[in-house]
Write a structure and sequence with these properties.
20% helix, globular, alpha+beta, 121 residues
Length: 121
């Protein structure tokens, strides 16, 4: 039996930005002019909501998250505590949202979901 994700995981949609985990956790503003340095040294990234609450995105590759660092995004997935198991990641462009990553598309491409230990249903 898999542990970690409960049977009561809730389907959610959140809008926010992708930010560095360390800066977010310690409530520090990472310097914008040294963003590449911070991104290279960071182990993971999180979704930060406008009010400051943040969520881990454990089944989304850090490379995908880093690609969209500081961008406005919309995440759809299943929330389990402080984590969201991502189904879709969309990036805000030209007043709307464009699909940037989906679990279904990645699985159809024959690539395993990176960092995921629990299968999505």
């Amino acid at each position: 039996m898999a542990t970690g994700m409960t049977a009561v995981a809730e389907e959610v949609i959140y809008e926010g930005t992708i930010q560095e985990l360390t800066c977010t956790y310690y409530s520090k503003e990472c310097p914008k002019n040294d963003l590449d340095i911070y991104a290279a040294l960071e182990n993971d990234f999180v979704l930060v909501l406008p009010e400051g609450k943040f969520f881990l995105l454990p089944n989304l590759s850090p490379l995908v998250k880093a690609r969209h660092l500081t961008e406005k995004v919309r995440i759809r997935g299943k929330q389990d505590g402080s984590s969201i198991w991502v189904e879709n990641l969309e990036v805000k462009q030209n007043g709307g949202y464009k699909n940037a990553w989906s679990r279904k598309r990645q699985e159809e491409g024959g690539r395993p979901i990176l960092r995921s230990k629990i299968p999505m249903r």
